[in-house]
Amino acid sequence: MARLTKSELLRSVEHAFQAGGWSVLYLTKAGEHPARYRITKNGESSFTVKVFIWNISHGGGSARSASEYRIQITGINPMQFIPEVGGKTLILGYWQQEEVFAGFDVRFHSGLLGSSPSIQISEDALVSANQNRFSTHRKETGELTVAFQPDFIGTYAQNLEPLHDVGSIRTEVLVLSNMTKDPQAISDEVIELSFSEPRRYAITQTKRALRSLSFADRVLTAYGHQCAICGIQLRLIDGAHILPVSEASSTDETSNGVALCAIHHRAYDNSLLTFDENYKVHLNSERTQELKRSGREGKLKEFESALPAVIHLPPNQSDRPKREYVVAANLLRGWHL
After folding, report:
1. Distance from the CA of 173 to the CA of which of 19, 191, 200, 262 falls in 20 to 30 A?
2. Cβ atoms of residues 225 and 233 within 8 Å
3. Alpha helix (H) residue ranges in the chain
4. Do 102 and 71 form a contact (C-beta atoms < 8 A)?
């Protein structure tokens, strides 16, 4: 497999942020390395990142472990990482074969790097990230390296320092490692007891992101990455909870999810439309009248005429919306069907 060019590597970073729902604003020219971006999500979370990235390759050589992979640091002048003031500095590797990133702690690599420097990560961590979305590897130096699938990059960047700081406490490393394999197995109470205060929030956010991304994966796969209302794909689809996560009886079962494009997700959450336990689609007449009274009914006829009689369903019956979730969600949103 051919090695990616620097421009291709940076595009993989940009696409990764976008896959996680983040918008990317260029602060440097496209393809310039290191790259600087302004990353924003939902108009709330926003920060600047400086990105250094190289291909991940096998360590090679008889003196090295067969399980060692690495990035070979080239093209920086001087050979030194300069942190982003007031932002995040990401040192990344990309393993194209499995579409997995590795993140390294800039604080361990901020000095002069020598004539032919490389930074290592274990094959186990990369494979585990491919299987579980997120994995860690503690090196003998105490550096905690992090491997992750592309759509996790925003959570990694947000919680960069606290995640890497876990490497200094072996007991925390163990709990975090267990959490990467099964986020639901580690309760918030366990996090409270196991992690020092500066890291608890980051670990809790990481756990929630892992659960959310796992749920979205299953829902989108079940629906073939198509909106259940309009059938569009184009990587514009969300895995939406039917019964919101804020409700005590909500679950991360695939049958409590439905794939919706951004427009129909917003319309569903705002009760402009819904579907019932027989999967029939309904438009909210009260809301449409409100739109007409306020002069905001533009394209309403086209919107209504494009609605299907019933939502598109996954072929696997066990993945289809469960009646109890649909009924409870509709009552919660004020529907009387």
Report:
1. 19
2. yes
3. 6-19, 123-132, 153-158, 160-165, 170-181, 188-194, 197-222, 262-269, 285-293, 300-305, 323-332
4. yes
Structural contact between residues 275 and 310, judged by C-beta atoms closer than 8 angstroms:
yes
Q: Tokens standing for 55?
A: 């291909």
Q: For all residues of the chain together, what is the average pLDDT?
A: 89
Q: What is the pLDDT of residues 75-87, one digit of tens each?
A: 886 567 888 889 9
State pLDDT tens for residues 141-174. Answer: 889 999 999 989 999 999 999 999 998 888 888 9
Query: What's the chain's Rg over C-alpha atoms?
Result: 23
User: pTM of the full predicted structure?
Assistant: 0.77
Residue at 260: amino acid letter? L
Residue 271 tokens read as 């009760």
Q: What's the token pair of residue 239?
A: 């895995």
d(C-alpha 334, C-alpha 245), whole Å: 17
The string of pLDDT tens digits covering residues 280-297 is 999 999 988 988 888 888
Q: Which residues pair with 44 in a beta bridge?
A: none
Say if residues 52 and 90 touch (Cβ distance below 8 Å): yes
Distance CA(16)–CA(108), nearest Å, equals 25
End-to-end CA distance of the chain: 55
- Report the distance separating Cα 153 and Cα 20, nearest Å: 7
Half-sphere exposure of 87 (CA within 13 A, CB side): 19
Which residues lie below 8 Å from residue 173, measured CB to CB, with a gap of 6+?
136, 138, 144, 166, 167
Pairwise CA distance, residues 185 & 261, whole Å: 31
In the chain, the amino acid numbered 290 is: E
The residues, any chain, with a CB within 8 Å of residue 161's CB and separated by 6 or more, are none
The yes-or-no verdict on residue 250 having pLDDT over 70 is yes
Question: At 169, which helix (H) or strand (E)?
Answer: none
Q: Which H/E stretch holds residue 121?
A: strand 118-122
